[in-house]
Amino acid sequence: MSAASTPERPAGGRREELLAIAARLFAERGFKNTTVRDIADAAGILSGSLYHHFDSKESMVDELLDTFQRELWKEYDAITGSDLSPRAKLEAVVRASFDAIDHHHSEVAIFQNDASYLIGFERFGYLEERNVRFRRLWTGLLEAGVEAGELRADLDVELVYRFLRDTVWVAVRWYRPGGELSPSQVADQYLTILLEGIAKTDG
Amino acid sequence: MSAASTPERPAGGRREELLAIAARLFAERGFKNTTVRDIADAAGILSGSLYHHFDSKESMVDELLDTFQRELWKEYDAITGSDLSPRAKLEAVVRASFDAIDHHHSEVAIFQNDASYLIGFERFGYLEERNVRFRRLWTGLLEAGVEAGELRADLDVELVYRFLRDTVWVAVRWYRPGGELSPSQVADQYLTILLEGIAKTDG
DNA sequence: GTCTATAGTATGATAGAC
DNA sequence: GTCTATCATACTATAGAC
């Protein structure tokens, strides 16, 4: 989206700094509830100055979501292209997703809270495309897992997919990076529940 | 919240009609993204006329959420007060929740999408209280289930509670009342996944 | 119960000086 | 890269006529 001109420092120049501030505010309050003045205030400048760096408020959230989704899909593609078993791939995708919640918390939160609103604009059509790809990824893995005899055959794949997708991403609402639980620990517990259930089966 | 003056018809008078329209729009677009003009337009009147029925836009969403939560808690209290086993109570609470998604779809959607924003106003402090009650309900049932030997003891109750809570309510994002799946069917599948898992355990 | 008319404010964005 | 100043618009809400 931008040709990194002079990458002198980690997290780049002023533009990336402002983008990070906007990300935090969008994630905390929602896109619509965050004004350009809020962002400027948090950055210690006036709202008009923001427009030296960005075309519009929409451009900011666009860049945030697009960058994040590209990175995430690189990881997903590496997993699906590997030679792991369907069940192992499914576990890897879950773990990669919880890692994303940890490392790109704001972006995930924005996507969770505001995607349904943003998707209404042509500019954000790519979000819909990614949703379709995401659905294919999960249902493909679930079907392959059933076929391989690794997963139960009596469940509605479409429905399991929705539970899976939602449960993974909705964790962004309570997960706090740097808190007590690592993304790996959360993924462990989640995969145990998902795969084995919470009922006591043996004595 | 209001003394039903002349209940002549199902769903009452004009006030309830307008409230239902507002609920639909709030649920579809979000509270902040829905203007009083949108609501008035959908009702075929002008925005100023809405203020004959309601103090403010906030009053509308307040009445919607408060009414809904009162009704929901009546059901929860009946379940917890029953003599069912912990696991059966847990199942009943899950079923009651999916029923709520079916029967009060807009209200659940509004709560899911906008509660975190609304909770910032003192007026909506009761939402925070209900969240606390909700947490106690779930964790209490989970702990009782473990103690009764019905649920696995090796899981983090706090974490299971979050997954449970989120997975149940987030279904409002895809569930459509009157669609192919009944709330009971969704609850069946969900409880199977939650209790038994999706992995194939035996031949 | 709805309309006309409008107040008061907040918002996204722009132009040009520094 | 930021500030000053400001425009145009959209929003919630009100007062009083019908």
Shape of chain A: elongated
**Helical proportion of chain A?**
55-70%
In sequence order, what are the helices and strands of chain A, one letter per element?
HHHHHHHHH
Largest sheet of chain A: none
Poorly predicted runs of chain A are 1-10
CATH class of the domain at 55-196 in chain A: Mainly Alpha
CATH architecture classification name of the domain at 55-196 in chain A: Orthogonal Bundle
Number of helices of chain A: 9
Largest inter-chain contact set:
A-B, 39 and 39 residues
Average of pLDDT of chain A: 93
Distance, first to last CA of chain A: 57 Å
Oligomer designation: homodimer
Number of strand segments of chain A: 0
CATH topology annotation of the domain at 55-196 in chain A: Tetracycline Repressor, domain 2
Rg of chain A, alpha carbons: 19 Å
Features:
elongated, repressor (chains A, B), DNA-binding, mainly alpha, homodimer, disordered N terminus, 203 residues, Tetracycline Repressor, domain 2
